[in-house]
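Is succinic acid placement plausible here? Inputs below.
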Amino acid sequence: MRITRASEAVGATVEDVDVNELSDQQFADIRAAFFDHGALFFRDQTLTPEQHVRFAKRWGSIDINRFFQQRPGYPEIAEVLKEPDQKLNIGGGWHTDHSYDEAPAMGSILYALDIPPTGGDTLFAGMAAAYEALDDDMKDRIKDLKARHGNAHIFGAESKYRKAVGDRYTNADQAGQTAVHPVVLTHPESGAKGLYVNPGFTLEIVDMDPDESKALLQKLYDHIGQDRFHHRHKWRQGDLAMWDNRATWHYALNDYQGHRRYLNRITIEGVAL
Ligand code: SIN
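Reply from A.M.:
I modeled the complex. Tokens:
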């Protein structure tokens, strides 16, 4: 098994290993690399849905996503799908999964089944590297702040985005969760400090004037938006990517109109932050 850094700020590639056949030692090395790098990209995997579920369960209990269409027969597996005639993709903006939950999903494990001939890459951003690169004044300004996250504007019945995604999303009536988390997170496993706000689900900084909150969030987003904190994953069929939702953002690019892209995602339970 070879684990190599994918970029300075986030991610590592894992090769020459079959995730169905991991020894305890290999799994321990992979787990350590996951919390070190924030995301792992396994190449050349062959997984049935049952094997995908089994691999996910090695990490913890499964956190079933309430809003994604489930793979028929597999409630644990969320479908990330765009058909050739659909214009809008799922996850096409910077976000981190489930930050609107009190205990956001620890990680997401995405398996590539059908990848367009070109395009459809996913960008990842490293939150610890982005935090470390802030100047001391900004670190001091945000150190005790909290932010509110929510999901109604994405998954709720009134969401324009949800309407455009159509029946690839379900349970609009169950949307509306909000949760408050620290803006600077001490990672529950690695202890590293990282930024924990994201353009997809963060609504506001708590106890701050709305204009000031908007301006501060935008400043942090512009900072994290710099290429130096990113890795671009070019998918191949059989890739299995997994990311730590407390340490990364991701963004599925929508530049493959007229082609199918189909992946299966399982999210793993996390802890209150
Ligand atoms: C997601 O946001 O979970 C989907 C990412 C992708 O399709 O690459």
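Short version: Helices lie at 24-37, 49-57, 127-132, 136-142, 152-155, 160-165, 210-224.
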